Amino acid sequence: MREKIKRTSLLILRIVISLGLISWIMLKVDKQQLLDSFRSLNIWLLLSSLAAYFAVNAVCAWRWQLLLSARGIKSGYWKLLRYFLNGLFFGNFLPTTVGGDLARAYLVADDCKSKSEALASVLVDRFIGLFGVIITGIAGLILVAKGGQEVTLLKGMLIGIAAALLFVVLFLNKSLVKKFRWLFKLPMMEKIEHQLVEFYHAIYAYRTHKREVFLSLLLSLMVQVFVVITAYLIALSLGIRISMIPFFLYMPVIAAVSMIPLSINGWGLQEGAFIVFFGRAGIAQPLALSLGFLYHLVAVGISLLGGLLWLIFGGRKPANNNKDSTKCG
After folding, report:
1. Residue by residue, what is the 3-state secondary structure of 117-161?
2. Which of 119, 234, 238, 293 is surrounded by the most beta carbons within 10 Å?
3. Cα distance between residue 325 and residue 329, in whole Å
């Protein structure tokens, strides 16, 4: 009961934070300009952005299938795409994308040797996706760098990626990790020692699949290209005429800000980030807010497809599962 009250309180707090952030943003922008931006909206370009964002998730599902197949897990592409969209839908009600990832791991667990294997595939998929975000951000930063501030930010991002790579190297060093086995002797850790060791080995196994990991990284870069195309099409639909290049810098940074677990699904945080970062590209606050709001709505719109698929299939496998187990290339 106490744990339930705690979860409910955190949920209410995040809803309040989301509403507070959105209200604060609305007080700061010109309401008339905001309304005018929506009145001149090009519906066809907006619909095109929906198709581009669907492509984002389609490539993500392909990347996930590649990682699963590396471990001998033959899940059909269309089934994994459905699971990915299911996770996207559940993420609408949670503080970050982590909840959606757990939903994916739960759904694919039946196809895996163990729950740890399923969770490891999702974690590795997420981590490789994060590297794609960082690399895209660095590329964008190099393209738009104009002064000392950007150079300082570039150095910070390079330090960040170097630290992440160092962590991976240390994490995959078994002899080093074994030195921390004493942590499992702590009161609360003893009960889950077996599960944690099994989980570690499931992640460690990807060390021998360098080809699949490298191809997954390339797919992560493709995902970021489609993210940029989505945002750029929304900008065009609002009549915003700027170069596509700044989007390669700002979209990865905005994605990172949206992952901060303060609000529900990043509402308020993401819109604020659009105003701050695209303001640097010369976009007026009302238009930047419209861009951020529509980008969020496009993501929610695609996620509703995941909700519809959940209503139809739930957690069941398609009847033609054997037929569906071929790879999608």
Report:
1. HHHHHHHHHHHHHHHHHHHHHHHHHHHHCCCHHHHHHHHHHHHHH
2. 234
3. 12
User: How far apart are the C-alpha atoms of 19 and 12, rounded to whole Å?
Assistant: 11
- Distance CA(137)–CA(210), nearest Å, equals 24
Identify whether the C-beta of residue 108 lies closer than 8 Å to the C-beta of residue 118. Answer: yes
Q: What is the pLDDT along the chain (329 residues), one digit of tens a residue?
A: 666 666 666 667 767 777 777 777 776 676 676 677 777 889 999 999 999 999 999 999 999 999 998 888 888 899 999 999 998 898 777 655 566 788 888 888 888 777 778 888 888 888 888 878 878 877 777 776 654 445 666 666 677 667 767 766 666 666 666 666 656 566 555 555 555 665 565 676 777 788 888 999 899 999 999 999 999 999 999 988 888 888 988 888 888 777 776 767 677 788 888 988 888 888 888 888 889 889 998 999 999 999 999 888 876 554 444 444 333 33
What gap in Å lies between CA 179 and CA 238, rounded to an integer?
A: 56
Alpha helix (H) ranges present in the chain? 2-28, 31-39, 43-70, 77-90, 98-108, 115-144, 148-171, 174-178, 193-204, 210-237, 245-258, 269-279, 285-313, 321-324
Please answer whether residues 292 and 271 qualify as being in contact, where contact means their C-beta atoms are separated by less than 8 angstroms: yes
Q: Which residue, chain included where needed, has tokens 């699971």?
A: 83
Q: Does a structural domain hold residue 57?
A: yes
- Tell whether 83 is covered by a domain: yes
Angle at 23 between CA 18 and CA 27, to 5 degrees: 150
Instruction: Establish if 11 belongs to a structural domain.
Output: no
Residue 173 sits in which domain range?
Answer: 30-180+190-320
**Tokens for 7?**
């979860």
- Answer yes or no: is 43 within a domain: yes
Report the C-alpha gap between 252 and 254 in whole angstroms.
Answer: 5
